[in-house]
Each structure stands twice: as C-alpha cells, then as structure tokens.
Amino acid sequence: MNRRVHFSAVSDRWATPADTYAALNDEFHFDFDPCPLDATENGLASLFVDWGGKRVFCNPPYGPGIATWLERDLEADVSVFLIPARTDTRWFHDIVLPKAKEIRFIRGRLKFGEATNSAPFPSMVVVFERCGES
Fold first, then answer.
1. pTM exceeds cut of 0.85
2. Are 72 and 51 in contact (CB under 8 A)?
3. Reduced to 3 DSSP states, what percent helix, strand and coil does the chain have, rounded to the nearest 5?
4. How far, in Å, CA of 46 to CA of 66, rounded?
C-alpha cells in the first residue's frame, strides 16, 4: 500500500463542506468558530480565546495538535467538532470517548471545500456539552 497517497496532504486544514456546516448550524446555532479557514491571524491564536458561554463549531487543523483543540471541549456551552475518524488514536480514547455527548460517524467520505475528490479519510462529528446545558 502506498501510505503517502492515503495519509498525506499538502495542508492539515480542510474547508468545511457548506452543506455539512449548514445542517449542524441549524441544529446547534453556532456563535463562534475558532478555526476559520481564511483567518488572517496565526491559527493557534484561537486557542487562547475564552470559549465560555459560546456555541462553538470547530474544524481544527488535522495535524498532531488536534488533541489541543479537543481539550477545550467542555469550556463552551456546546462544542461541535468536525474531525477525522481516527478511532485508534490516544486523543480519541482519552478525550472523545469518555467526554463526548455524541459521536456521529459520517457515512462515506466528505468532499471538503471546492474539492472534486472525496477526502482520503473518514470523518466524524463529535458533540460536547457542559453538564446541565442543552
């Protein structure tokens, strides 16, 4: 198997498919996105912004720092992550499984942004809610 084809990309940032975001926004009514694709600031600056009281949508960079984003999960009233379905990772077992309110595995492969081809990996939506929030 040619691992380079299956597990590499020019970037670790993937533009959220518009229909996926719209459906999630209709359900969760987001008011904060810490990882906008076309941000003009250093992508890590959003890690230092308070998420308290917010309804967060986060499609973080898919590199080795993904756990750092997931660790912010319960700061927000609701945080919804669009991330690769990597169920063999430490962050999946240490953060997602024990703390997520819901994990939605997306059937098939998403086409990110304006891509003509599907992503080389499966995706999932992970929902975290602070206790007592709805």
1. no
2. yes
3. 25, 15, 55
4. 13
CB 123 within 8 A of CB 86: no
Eight-state DSSP code of residue 92:
I
| Domain range summary for the chain, segments of one domain joined by + | 7-129
Digit-by-digit pLDDT tens for the chain (134 residues) are 333 333 344 555 668 888 899 999 999 999 998 887 655 455 455 566 788 999 999 998 888 889 999 998 889 999 999 999 999 999 999 999 999 999 999 999 887 777 777 777 899 999 999 875 44
Residue written as token pair 């959220």? 16
105 C-beta neighbours (distance < 10 Å), count: 11
What is the distance of C-alpha 124 from the center of its chain? Answer: 8
Q: Which two tokens stand for residue 82?
A: 């669009």
Q: Cβ atoms within 10 A of the Cβ of 130, count?
A: 15
Among 45, 35, 120, smallest CA distance to 82 is for 35
Backbone angles phi, psi at 32, to 5 degrees: -155, 135
